[in-house]
């Protein structure tokens, strides 16, 4: 019987959702978090069995609805995860989080880029694209892990804060890299404009400030507007429609003017999560977005495994393993120690001790944002006929897939052990 292409694509979508549901009971029986199970499912039903096609996985992740399930899912994930931002931890450790999300991110992008270029022979700018993509850490992986083990609030709060706020920075670094590689593409139009008028240094600084300050202010304002609107009108169960509608409006409007929308989305989620009145309808709003976020993560991580082909698995598995270990055990510790140690000379800022730095340097799983960004160079190269991005696009997203998979699996295994070794029964709130 003949099945149309559209019908088969819906079969694939339904199949992805069904196999995602099995990740929870399987991970529960295996006593692990569900994300590695989802990725393995993607590998099995994608390149191994061919039930989820490579082309459809890339289309769904990066082009569905013109923006892709990846970006739309990221909107939901960041909005929900930002409900968990702890203002007390954020205020107390703001300097350290900011340092990890600036100095640490740049060190990660440059360091990983250097290793990528050396190992592949690619130009450094291509390596920098890879480094920018894998620079954000993942709150979706950290939060479930920290729920299973007891880690001091200052350490866990700083790591979660870093992972929430470094997502927009990773996108900004990738935008800068794309602009330097292919200045004519629309993806980096705003940075190209600033770069041409003010130069690389001032252009980068002004672009960074514009991409963070403007959307953050908008997100804070809309967060309080949502709260006050609900107090006046009482939307009850349709509160979920109001919040989701405004978040999607933020995303669409800021994207349209080439400004990264994710600081706005994170700010709105943080305001709603901390300043709403916690009525039954706000609890339902949180539960709804938690489930929606979980479903988005499930689809994205299954697609992560499915976008690889059998040839890429064979050709890049050794390279992917090597670059993953370098990112986890060389680049991440270097970035953490360098960005946190600058405060050791100040008497007015609370410092992390060596044990805490070691733990934080070994905890930094990559996740949703790198997955979503991994196909951007290849897609832009294909759409705008940019040879260098087409040439290296496949190895970039294949390498990112291995870094995400290996970092999550390894850190799921060893984080509880190093937590007990380094901290033992020390469960205090902070360090001196």
UniProtKB/TrEMBL annotation:
Domain Cation/H+ exchanger transmembrane: 19-416
Subcellular location per the Swiss-Prot or TrEMBL entry: Cell membrane
GO biological process assignments: proton transmembrane transport
Membrane topology of the entry: Multi-pass membrane protein
Nucleotide-binding listed as a keyword: no
Residues spanning the membrane: 6-26, 33-52, 58-81, 93-118, 124-143, 169-194, 200-227, 239-272, 292-309, 316-338, 358-380, 392-414
Any Pfam family hit: Na_H_Exchanger
Cellular component annotations (GO), alphabetically ordered: plasma membrane
MF terms (GO), sorted A to Z: antiporter activity
UniProt entry keywords in alphabetical sequence: Antiport, Ion transport, Membrane, Transmembrane, Transmembrane helix, Transport
Identification of the protein by name: Sodium:proton antiporter
Lineage, highest ranks first: Archaea, Methanobacteriati, Thermoplasmatota, Thermoplasmata, Thermoplasmatales
